[in-house]
Amino acid sequence: MPKEERKKGTHLTWDDRHEIQKGLKEHRTFKEIAYIIGCSPDTVSKEIRRHRYHKLRNRDGILHASPNRCKYRNSCRRWDVCKKKKGHKCRIPCRECISCNKLCPDFVDAPCPIEHKAPYVCNNCPKSISCLFDKYLYNADYAHKEYCETLRKSRQGIDMTRDELAALDSLVSPLIRKGQPLAHILAHHAEEIPCGERTLYKYISAGYLTARNLDMRRTVRYRKRVRSVPTPKISYRKKEGHHYSDYLDFIAKNEGIRVVQMDTVEGNKGGKLLHTLLWPGNNLMLAFLIETKEMKNTVAAFDWLEETLGSEMFRELFPVILTDNGCEFADPELFEKGHDGKKRTRVFYCESRHSEQKGELEKNHEYIRYVLPKGSSFDGLNQEQVLRMVNHINNTTRPKLHGSTPMKKALKSFDKNAMEKLGLEIIPPDEICLKPELLK
């Protein structure tokens, strides 16, 4: 008979884990095991995957080397890939050699399928004895010990056993449900509670007690604290001569010079970003996927551009850069200094809270949001996908360009070889896609 229906969010007990181990031995499905212990099948699946352990093959007390995991191990006829002996061929077939997987250029990994499909472990597998692969096993005692160790480490040095935690829960949780503040509980039960107020809040938030944040009046109102990214401390003097007023004076003295606007587009907070560049004259845009909002990543994109295009072509295409005051662009010297030590560009900064001063780029970001809606994560993207998106955006007709596209407009004044090096290409009008499906 199944246990009484478990409350959502409670931890599996030692007895529950033994039921899971017993169910695996009896070839029960996750649904059947979940029905017995009173939880969802997904909980059983996560428990097994989270607490399974890897056991190396051990026969007759001898620890054997890892098996050949190559997809072609049964049909392989290769010899002497390692070339250990000069003038003599190795007598061991490559499929039987322990170094085959590391040295063979045609190696294709083909792991045991049990690792990636239910039940995810080799408990009571009929092929376990003759199997070439190391084992994944689930043991109730090991799983509970591992869980308790993880719990102990998360308590910042406070050593508390499972029984002590249960005693704490039986004391604190009923009082919280009566509406008592933690300060009130600690004031009257200080000798019985072996931790402080801050630790109790952490236990409740982490789900170690049966009481939840929802049982407390004010905790549920607080937003999760987001740690701010430390901004680099750049001397204000370094930006002297790089302000927007200096930019206007420079443009007035150098009429017709190319200007490139620069910015970043953010996905989820703390995740990957897009480093964007745009020529306002033709609305041609470049975008580079960067890991974090740090200056080393944006400078690396400039270094790659100079290395790919060559110093002379880089100076021709990027003579002036206009950007905002973000921390990722804080030091103008790092962007202006080229590989040869000479100045490769000039960087100027917009006034604070005046994004309209580089309005063409801000407007062009709208096309990025067609493909990557606001709030979507960029962590699963790669540079190839970003380049595909950029090419579709650059081949979209703009009313500002009188029915032309940024790509066609740029080809009239930009070097074609430079465009090819940057991966920019023409896409037929009917093939343009500006929806998230483009990157799938």
Q: Report the sheet with the most strands, covering strand number, pairing sense and barrel closure.
A: 5 strands, mixed
Strand tally is: 9
Q: Note the run of SSEs as H and E.
A: HHHEEEHEHHHHHEEEHHEHEHHHH
Task: Tell me the span between the first and last alpha carbons.
Answer: 46 Å
Q: What is the arithmetic mean of pLDDT?
A: 83
Judging from the principal axes of the Cα atoms, what is the shape?
A: extended
Query: What spatial order of strands do you see in the largest sheet?
Result: 7-6-5-8-9
Q: Would you give an account of this structure?
A:
- The two termini are 46 Å apart.
- The model is unreliable at 59-65 (pLDDT under 50).
- 35% of the residues lie in helices and 9% in strands.
- The radius of gyration is 31 Å and the shape is extended.
- The strands form 3 sheets. The protein has a 5-stranded mixed β-sheet, sandwiched between helices. A two-stranded antiparallel ribbon has the order 1-4. The chain has a two-stranded antiparallel sheet with strand order 2-3.
- With 440 residues, it is of the alpha/beta class.
- The protein has 16 helices and 9 strands.
- Helix 12 (332-336) links the parallel strand 8 (320-323) and strand 9.
- The protein has helices at residues 14-25, 30-37, 41-51, 100-103, 140-153, 162-177, 182-188, 197-206, 244-253, 295-309, 311-317, 332-336, 359-371, 383-394, 406-411, 416-421, and strands at residues 53-55, 58-59, 62-63, 135-137, 259-266, 273-279, 284-290, 320-323, 346-349.
